[in-house]
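in:
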């Protein structure tokens, strides 16, 4: 593989006198540092066939191609297309079905075949593979574009020294320090801070814990291309390896907007990389933040096409405040910040706690991430707030709520509610109220958790009217006694249906 270690003074390495490859093995040895692909040699009736590995996949850069070191002149003519004459560019065109293919010889034995399109023309993929094959055959990488030349040949190190561009494992890389944004053809990226942590997603109710230790990188991206950016694939170069972001943990981190990112707009968030603790400690000093830097020939942002690397050594050693969400024109209002349960004095009872699961389901469905001050657990029977008190659960109450759950979700498999799945409050003249969560099982489907608010009317439990968020008909004292936050009910988001 291409070396990305120290390269002395950073001056470009002087080129030895170019000499064409004289054997299939010599060509393969030269091809690898240019493309990142180690070709396997296989003998067949045509001579020596070069087999590409499955990984790394370079189809995005080169398209479909094959290489053959032909056994003799007769075989060479057969591979080029017997009777086919070259065009002005030295290409031998043949057509199979509705697809044109081009072949080009290099010296007396090597032939490159490339699968084209429905029209007889070359594409940027052809230009890239043709340059790579020519450079490997001649032993002269100076014929490549500067970003395609291996870093060792250019006397550059993407992780230290002067900024620039060169090829790492066959991928063109533009690299710079983190003291200012790195501008590439598709993205302008700025690293805002770097830190390490064992856990992310505090307050969501489902925090993610690192197997090793998280390296967390906060960053801002501006779309400088002319197409919307529908997704980002961020990575890091740590301890000589390219590490993918931990996507499952990343979704728990706040971001400034949702995708897509229109041309000219920016996006701010952070991501994490789960690595060995020893590697994490060296991330700022020796690591780089990696991103796809240009749209490929299909208009997609692909890290297999080109990359940008931002060295982390000069990045701030602490993370900034989480970004404020930005909304595109016409988007719904953002979820308001929680303010906490109603400010009504609560006297804690001494009975058995009930409703712990119902409190959690209600909270996580109302606010995500959950408020940091949310405390899990049930509410003891006998707890009072205002005119509301938590009474004991009885079999009759459980049976009535189970019947209401079945009416609200027909066709599911239900079991008798557990004590932890029901919050209950007797509020005197304001009525008797409950919030319940339940498990729905349907044949061949995954388990689903549902929840709703219920009121006892004429001996029958009735759920929320359609369009009314659960909790928004409750007396304030019921929310206080259960210690749930219903402040969302006083915002425009919840101006639907009747309220308490």
């Amino acid at each position: 593989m291409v070396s990305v270690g120290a390269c002395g003074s950073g001056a470009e390495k002087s080129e030895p006198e170019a000499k064409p490859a004289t054997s299939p093995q010599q060509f393969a040895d030269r091809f690898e540092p240019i493309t990142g692909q180690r070709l396997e040699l296989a003998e067949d009736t045509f001579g020596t066939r070069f087999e590409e590995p499955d990984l790394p996949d370079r189809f995005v850069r080169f398209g479909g191609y094959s290489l053959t070191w032909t056994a003799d002149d007769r075989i060479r003519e057969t591979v080029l297309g017997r009777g086919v004459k070259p065009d002005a560019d030295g290409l031998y065109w043949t057509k199979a079905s509705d697809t044109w293919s081009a072949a080009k010889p290099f010296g007396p034995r090597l032939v490159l075949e490339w699968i084209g399109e429905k029209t007889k023309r070359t594409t940027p993929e052809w230009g890239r593979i043709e340059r790579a094959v020519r450079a490997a055959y001649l032993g002269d990488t100076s014929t490549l574009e500067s970003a395609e030349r291996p870093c060792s040949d250019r006397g550059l190190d993407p992780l230290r020294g002067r900024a620039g561009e060169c090829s790492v494992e066959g991928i063109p890389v533009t690299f710079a320090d983190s003291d200012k944004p790195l501008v590439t053809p598709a993205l302008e990226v700025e690293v805002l801070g770097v830190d390490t942590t064992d856990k992310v997603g505090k307050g969501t109710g489902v925090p993610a814990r690192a197997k090793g230790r998280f390296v967390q990188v906060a960053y801002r991206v501006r779309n400088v291309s002319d197409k919307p950016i529908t997704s980002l694939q961020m990575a890091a170069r740590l301890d000589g390896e390219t590490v993918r972001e931990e996507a499952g943990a990343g979704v728990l981190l706040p971001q400034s907007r949702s995708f897509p990112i229109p041309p000219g707009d920016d996006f701010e968030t952070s991501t994490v990389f789960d690595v060995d603790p020893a590697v994490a400690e060296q991330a700022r000093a020796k690591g780089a933040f990696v991103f796809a830097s240009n749209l490929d020939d299909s208009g997609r942002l692909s890290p297999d096409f080109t990359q940008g690397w931002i060295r982390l050594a000069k990045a701030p050693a602490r993370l900034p405040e989480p970004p404020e969400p930005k909304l595109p024109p016409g988007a719904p209002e953002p979820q308001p910040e929680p303010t906490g349960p109603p400010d009504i004095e609560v006297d804690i009872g001494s009975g058995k706690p009930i409703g712990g699961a119902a409190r959690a389901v209600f909270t996580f469905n109302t606010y995500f991430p959950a408020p940091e001050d949310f405390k899990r657990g049930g509410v003891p029977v006998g707890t009072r707030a205002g005119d509301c008190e938590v009474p004991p659960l009885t079999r009759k109450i459980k049976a009535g709520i189970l019947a209401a759950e079945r009416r609200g979700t027909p066709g599911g498999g239900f079991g008798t509610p557990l004590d932890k799945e029901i919050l209950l409050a007797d509020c005197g003249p304001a009525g008797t109220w409950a919030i319940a969560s339940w498990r729905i099982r349907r044949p061949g489907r995954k388990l689903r958790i549902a929840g709703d608010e219920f009121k006892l009317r004429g001996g029958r439990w009735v759920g929320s009217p359609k369009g009314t968020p659960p909790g928004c008909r409750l007396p304030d004292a019921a929310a206080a006694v259960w210690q749930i936050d219903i402040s969302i009910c006083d915002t425009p988001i919840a101006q639907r249906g009747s309220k308490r």
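note: The radius of gyration is 32 Å.
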